[in-house]
Every structure is written in structure tokens, then in C-alpha cells.
């Protein structure tokens, strides 16, 4: 059984793979109206051609337990430009849970600063808890992140 905090992570990511703003996501949550209000962030591929999964076939997660390696995988040779990744207890949560690490800091960033607008400042959702791209450069599947 997936824990409450991990299940929305999968849904949140599903709605948030786009071409993206060049410097990172312009929003902190992956709901359609919020994304639409942020302007031209590019199109999401429909149907999605990617999967997000926890390494090692993890079926449960305990808060404060071992970190999880999350892998974004897609079509062989597939690419993407932007993402918004977070875990929450509900899709409309006002707080994201956990923190992100173990990512290529030249390609990705946590959204914790107001200094790089129009990129969203998601610090109010939890420091280090919202991950996005740093550049609009093409990124290859698979991509790994530690949560």
C-alpha cells in the first residue's frame, strides 16, 4: 500500500511535466487552474510518456525513515525540459512533505527563493520540498531524485 504522502506525489508529478519556464516552474502546485494562470509554460504530453517510481519496489514509507530514490523514466531515448515535483498528503495541500536531494544541481533546483522570478517561491510549502528544473535544456530519461 502506498502511504498517503507518496500517492499524491505520483499525481502531482503527472500533471506537472511540461516544457516549462526556462528557469524553473512558475507555480508551486500541480493543479490545472494554477498552471493555466501562470501563462505559457508549454504543453504537457498527452498521454504521458513517462513513469515515476520508487527504486526497490517500495510499498510503504515511514516518516523519518530511510530516504527513497525516485526515478523518472520515459521512452527509450526520450527527453523532457521541465518538471514540478513534490509530495503532499492531498492534491490541494498547503504544505509539501519531505525534502529533495541527490539531484544534478546544474539541471534542477528546489524552489525556495524569491530572487529568481518568474520562478515560483515555494518556501511557504516547506524548505526543500518542491523540486523543479533550473534550465530549459533538454534532459534525458532516466532522472533520479532522493526524497
TrEMBL record:
Keyword match Transmembrane helix: no
Keywords: Signal
Domain Reelin stretches: 46-147
InterPro entries named among the record's database cross-references: Reeler_dom, Reeler_sf
Signal peptide span: 1-20
Gene3D superfamilies: Reeler domain
Top-level division of the source organism's lineage: Eukaryota
Keyword Signal: yes
This protein's name: Reelin domain-containing protein
Amino acid at each position: 500500500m502506498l502511504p498517503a504522502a507518496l500517492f499524491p506525489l505520483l499525481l502531482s508529478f503527472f500533471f506537472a511535466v511540461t516544457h516549462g519556464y526556462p528557469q524553473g516552474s512558475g507555480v508551486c502546485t500541480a493543479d490545472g487552474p494554477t498552471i493555466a494562470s501562470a501563462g505559457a509554460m508549454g504543453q504537457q504530453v498527452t498521454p504521458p510518456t513517462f513513469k515515476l517510481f520508487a527504486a526497490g519496489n517500495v510499498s510503504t514509507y515511514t516518516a523519518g525513515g530511510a530516504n527513497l530514490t525516485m526515478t523518472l523514466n520515459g521512452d527509450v531515448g526520450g527527453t523532457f525540459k521541465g518538471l514540478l515535483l513534490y509530495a503532499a498528503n492531498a492534491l490541494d495541500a498547503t504544505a509539501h512533505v519531505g525534502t529533495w536531494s541527490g539531484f544534478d544541481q546544474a539541471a534542477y533546483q528546489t524552489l525556495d527563493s524569491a530572487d529568481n522570478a518568474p520562478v515560483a517561491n515555494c518556501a511557504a510549502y516547506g524548505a526543500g520540498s518542491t523540486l523543479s528544473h533550473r534550465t530549459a535544456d533538454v534532459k534525458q530519461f532516466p532522472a533520479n531524485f532522493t526524497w
